[in-house]
Amino acid sequence: MTNITLSPHPPALSTHDSLILSHLLSTSSAPSPPLIDPALPSPYPPSVLRQESSILLPLVHTKPSPPSSEVGSTIALLSNLITQHPSNASLRNNRAQAARLIVGDDLRVRAVAESSVWEDLTRAIELVRGAGREREGKVSKAEAAVAAKALAQRAVLVGKYARTWAEARSPSHTSPGTSFHTSIDSLQLQSASPPAQQTLDAVNPIERNSRWLPHELQGLDHDAVEAFARRDLEAAGRYGDEGARDMAVRLNPYAKLCGDVVREATRGEMGGAVGEQGGRKISRLSQ
Q1: Residue among 26, 172, 182, 194 at smallest CA distance from 101
Q2: Is 14 exposed, middle or buried (CB count within 10 Å of its CB: 0-12, 13-18, 19+)?
Q3: Burial degree of 261 (CB within 10 A; 0-12, 13-18, 19+)
Q4: Of 15, 115, 151, 178, which is most buried with the most CB atoms under 10 A?
Q5: Which residues neighbour 248 within 8 Å (Cβ) at sequence distance 6 or greater?
Q6: pLDDT tens-digit profile of 207-260?
Q7: Phi then psi for 197, rounded to 5 degrees?
Q8: 3-class secondary-structure state, position 67
């Protein structure tokens, strides 16, 4: 029987292969056409924007979080405007953000399912995409900003659902998905989040059930749910949200694996990374 001796040093990638992999993992190499046309005017009438800003002002200036009554009034006023302007994606995105302050972010909760959060975000995204299809895929800066925010909000909701699924499956879940959930939490800092939700749950536990999930998520396994959130982040990036775009690249499982291969090969070219017993030292997946 032939004995096989493993080299303590990893096989080094050629400079050419390293450059190719680095390009593939770069956030600036996505082969997608530019979606934003600066020459296109905003479809949102200035008079409606002024009303929208006036309605949202109390929420913006209330620290640390506005009372439920104030949020409820804001949602009611936005709803009135949406009735008058049903195709205004900005109004729907902001109503969803305000509603999350009351109902929370858990898609398995009935209050979230019965709210307008998911429907508003999805409708806002569809409105912008629909407008783009009428202009060879191009949208205005204002439309792109709304779509990016709506997509990022939806990614937070779906990402949090993926995390609760993983935690329920294993409290000590430490797979590469853990960095996915950590990154979703960091994205949430840029979006509305109900700070009192954990306290409310402790006082009055809320029933959670997957039957309240949006139909788009029904029947998906954990990996498919994470992929859904990643696609929303990637789309937000194409609409100009660089933070979402970078995060989507970092959360791509293939990017993590390839990035680890590149780093390991680089160590080999620099003399290798050898453990105490002469074995190969494997770096952790990127966070």
Answers
A1: 194
A2: exposed
A3: middle
A4: 151
A5: 230, 233, 234, 236, 237
A6: 678 889 999 999 999 899 999 999 999 999 999 988 887 777 777 765 555 545
A7: -60, -45
A8: coil
